[in-house]
Amino acid sequence: MVIPKLIYLDTNLWNRLLDQNVDPSALLSKLERCDSSLALSGQNVYELALTFQTSTDRGKELFRYLKVYVEAGIVGAYDNLDLLRAEVTALYARSDSVVSYYNPADYDALKAEVTKLADGIVDQRAQSFLSKRMGLAKASREDPKTHLEQRPDFKARLLAVSENGLAAWLDEQVSGKVGTALLIGHLNSVYESPRWMRQ
Prior knowledge:
Elements: E1 5-8, H1 11-19, H2 24-33, E2 36-41, H3 42-49, H4 56-71, E3 75-77, H5 80-92, H6 104-118, H7 124-150, H8 152-160, H9 166-175, H10 177-190, H11 195-198
Parallel strand pairs: 1-2, 2-3
């Protein structure tokens, strides 16, 4: 059995598929012939829901289109923070694997959310997520810029990394103190200050 390659589309690509009137069943058939399939996450859904802030009609149109793919059974993938939480749970349970894809109940919840949005219903849960995402998006644009302005030495070190040495430099950063600090920050956002982090 060949395991299909999963393609996780950016919100811009979902919009482009809609704008170009790409037939969902034809696209999924072509992908299947290439041992590939599309994947979608809750994060993807809520990012696409940002469309409702500028145009309700466009949001409904986009989610009616997306609904066809969900009803066709494209893969539902857990978000990165959900996976991080599952990895910690697996670590404590001494499990050697983490499930990356939606179980049937979670997929049904995804379908229900897409259906609501296709009908133009943006509930409180979606509104709350959208507000948080806007804050995170603003911070993700401004924080690195501010950090580099305040740390010219760090900016100079980044500029000194050659294109050929970038992969090795990234590996070193991810597995060193910087990577550890970032991981702890992500864990803090998933869990409310776990006991082992307070020590």
